[in-house]
Design a protein that fits this description.
By secondary structure, the chain is α/β, with parallel strands linked by helices. It contains 22 helices and 25 strands. The relative contact order is 0.06.
Length: 792
């Protein structure tokens, strides 16, 4: 075994590969998993990692494809290609490969939008459904050929059933006849030498004439084939021989067809085996909660890395960086504290990565591709080879130093242990220095204080330690990079009950330099704990801030939703107002028509004026009710004295001056406003006196915008730039004015644009009772940007 293979075993790669093998289905894929070895080519490693990632992504979306029934049929195909005839089991295995190829090919489907680096494996499958179904319909079991395998076989078996029925009929007559009852041992039909017989007592042999085929062990029973069944049995034997020949012919024919497609079936098997292996890697990644590490040139960056063979729920993750700002990591700490596990985690994850496997780490992890990953871990003392612990370690180190280069990862456990501490520490430093000169990346564990000092003072070398809780006397398994491990021998001894005088005596025997160094480490440890506490508090504060930010974002989202709902509610209210205005406008126009008819009939002018006044009052009342703004109205003014005939008053609802003509007994005023006669109650008018009359006259000189408008209506209206709701409302008011101005045809300019405004206007025109017809403009009229409306 080469030292590289020995290092792989030391890092426990075979156990990981055994887990990978258990995820595969067919034996060939299992063997490929067990024989997997790391590659030292970055391009090949990247390709294998991408394949694993692609398979894992497919599993997340579609689940895993089925590889059941996949068996190695290459030897059977080779024998068939040489002219041999395959048995039913071998043919069923070939059909299983073809079925598996067809199902896996359909797994990818025709989805060409999601391409991956393993699509070529799926597209390379050449499933042969015809041959698969032919084998499946011909062979129904390991030792059974179906009647439908050939017309000849079906005919032979039909004749065999008929011959068997005749033989059984002849024998049934004998066993059911009273004449043979005493001669028969039992009234049953059985078989001997593939012929139907009946059991006859040895003393009654002559009572049943026929051929003796067997005798019982006691000699009391003879199995005789009666003469009446001989012909049918002979025919049955002949048909059985024909059946055998026909089955051999069918198997030979199927074997020949398999031989014709040998290359395709071989190729399908190889592709399916490869896919089974790749999806096994994806399953293992999913099982261990792994992800691909980013490939780097030299730096090792591990984030929340876990040893894959430990319980993933209990394993304490480690974080470290190595190979960038420093190339050597010296790990110290108490025994069973996790030093060796950390060392193995680094090596095993690097090996898994180069095998194309995902590793149990978090985002931001990076691993380079090494040409050598060499490890000296564990006690390899050998009595047979006369090797002590030190000698065994040194033998491994010699092999490592012979093979190391600038693309090597070297892992040393308890470097320099097993000999004099002073010499061992000096030797360990020299070994590290030599490996550094060769350009290797190194991780080593030790108990020597000299190596802690070396790592503290030497550039490119970094201390690390495995944390130990003195209070509980248990390791926390946390790897702390940048801090040397403190010797906890005195603290542990005190906790276990060792006398204080003994501990103090031991402290006095330690050299001043060692004691000073240990005190420095203790201060560093206290500082680290304080900083970690502050960092934890800062992290909690950051999390609270993030939580507050999330709550704020949620509240903003809820507020936006509420605003959207309010906007929608306002639009609905506006639509309701528009509908209400439309209804009241229609009622008004209906009353206008009635007034016109009354005028045409030359009815009483007073009645007409009263009707007009009532209509104006109702219109203005509706306008006030539908006014969008709800600003508080000014304090209502009252007349300074009761009005009398000849006074000038302001009609509040119409904002119009009028002269009082007469007053009835119930204080109903008869007013003249220009050419109109108006009736109103006294509380509906305001007495105007002195300068107020002149001021109101000036206000009335400008066009009024309340009540009924008297301005001249144009023959067209431009709605471009308006929202749909605003444009529809404006167009309806315009049509009202156009009708009152006795216009017959008007133009509504809405523009071309997206057509949304035109559609809203046409929808309004379709239901408006004032519209007789409408159409789009012709050439010269504005074409599709204008709608020509004909009014009733």
């Amino acid at each position: 075994m080469s030292f590289f293979e020995k290092s792989l075993n030391t890092l426990e790669l075979p156990r990981v590969l055994e887990m990978l093998s258990n995820e595969a289905v067919c034996e060939s894929a299992k063997n490929e998993a067990l024989n997997l070895r790391p590659s030292d080519q970055p391009g090949e490693v990247e390709r294998h990692l991408n394949e694993t990632s692609a398979a894992k992504q497919m599993m997340i979306v579609k689940g895993s494809p089925s590889f059941s029934g996949l068996k190695d049929v290459r030897s059977a195909l080779q024998r068939a290609d040489l002219g041999g005839s395959l048995n039913t089991v071998e043919l069923m295995d070939i059909a299983g490969v073809l079925r598996c190829a067809r199902l896996v090919k359909s797994y990818i489907g025709d989805d060409k939008l999601q391409r991956s680096c393993i699509d070529y494996l799926f597209s390379g499958l050449r499933a042969n459904k015809f041959l698969e179904e032919k084998i499946g319909t011909s062979i129904v079991g390991e030792d059974e050929i179906a009647d439908a395998a050939s017309p000849e076989l079906s005919n032979i078996r039909r004749k065999m059933r008929a011959a068997a029925a005749r033989a059984r009929e002849a024998l049934n007559k004998i066993i059911s006849s009273p004449a043979y009852a005493k001669a028969l041992q039992e009234p049953i039909i059985t078989m001997r030498s593939d012929r139907y017989v009946v059991p006859v007592k040895s003393g009654s042999k002559g009572a049943v004439p026929g051929l003796v085929h067997d005798i019982s062990a006691t000699g009391n029973t003879l199995f005789i084939e009666p003469m009446g069944a001989v012909k049918a049995n002979n025919e049955l034997r002949e048909l059985a021989a024909k059946e055998k020949i026909e089955i051999e012919r069918i198997l030979a024919e199927l074997s020949a067809e398999c031989a014709e497609h040998r290359e395709d079936i071989d190729e399908d098997f190889m592709l399916l085996t490869r896919l089974d292996f790749i999806f096994a890697k994806a399953k293992l990644s999913y099982k261990l909660n792994c992800m691909p590490a980013e490939l780097s040139d030299r730096a090792i960056v591990l984030r929340r890395a876990r040893h894959p063979l430990l319980d993933q729920a209990k394993a304490v993750p480690i974080d470290l960086e190595l190979g960038d700002t420093f190339d050597t990591l010296v790990i110290t700490g108490p025994n069973t504290g996790g030093k060796t596990v950390s060392l193995k985690t680094i090596g095993l994850l690097a090996v898994m990565n180069q095998c194309g496997l995902h590793v149990p780490v978090s985002d931001g992890s990076k691993l380079p591709v090494f040409s050598n990953i060499l490890a000296d871990i564990g006690d390899e003392q050998s009595i047979e080879q006369s090797l002590s612990t030190f000698s065994a370690h040194m033998t491994n180190i010699v092999n490592i130093l012979d093979k190391c280069d600038d693309r090597s990862l070297l892992l040393f456990d308890e470097l320099g242990a097993g000999t004099d501490p002073t010499e061992g520490a000096a030797l360990a430093i020299s070994i590290i220095e030599y490996a550094r000169k060769m350009g290797s990346i190194i991780a080593a564990t030790t108990h020597y204080a000299e190596l802690k000092v070396y790592a503290t003072n030497e550039k490119g070398v970094q201390n690390a330690s495995c944390e130990f809780d003195v209070e509980t006397l248990r390791p926390t398994y946390r790897l702390l990079v940048g801090i040397p491990g403190k010797s906890n021998a005195f603290a542990i001894s005190r906790r276990l009950g060792l006398g204080e005088h003994i501990i103090e005596d031991a402290k006095e025997r330690i050299g001043t330099e060692s004691a000073s160094f240990e005190a420095t480490i203790e201060k560093l440890e206290q500082t680290r704990l304080m900083l970690e506490k502050e960092r934890e508090e800062a992290t909690k504060a950051l999390r609270r801030a993030e939580e507050n930010e999330r709550k704020s974002a949620r509240l903003r989202a809820e507020l936006e939703v509420r605003l959207d709902k309010s906007d929608l509610k306002a639009k609905r209210e506006a639509q309701r107002i528009i509908e209400e205005a439309r209804r009241k406008a229609e009622d008004t126009f209906h009353e206008l028509d009635e007034m016109r008819r009354m005028a045409d009939k030359e009815e009483d002018a007073r009645a007409v004026n009263e009707a007009r006044s009532e209509m104006r009052r109702r219109l203005n009342q509706a306008e006030e009710e539908l006014r969008p703004d709800n600003a508080p109205k000014a304090t209502e003014q009252k007349s300074s004295r009761p009005v009398k005939p000849g006074d000038t008053v302001l009609i509040k609802s119409m904002n119009m001056q009028a002269e009082v003509i007469s007053i009835s007994k119930d204080r109903q005023l008869s007013l003249r406003a220009g050419i109109m006669n108006v009736n109103a109650k006294e509380d509906e008018v305001l007495l105007l006196e002195g300068s107020a009359i002149k001021k109101k006259k000036k206000e009335q000189s400008a066009p009024a915008v309340t009540g009924l408008r008297a301005e001249q209506t144009a023959g067209e209206i431009d709605l471009r730039g308006m929202e749909s709701i605003e444009a529809v409302l404006t167009a309806e008011r315009y049509l009202d004015s156009a009708v009152m101005s006795k216009l017959k045809t008007v133009s509504i300019i809405h523009g071309k644009g997206t057509g949304a405004l035109r559609a809203a206007i046409h929808q309004m025109l379709k239901r408006n009772k004032l519209v007789k017809s409408y159409r789009l403009g012709r050439f010269g009229e504005g074409e599709s940007g204008v709608t020509i409306v004909e009014l009733k």
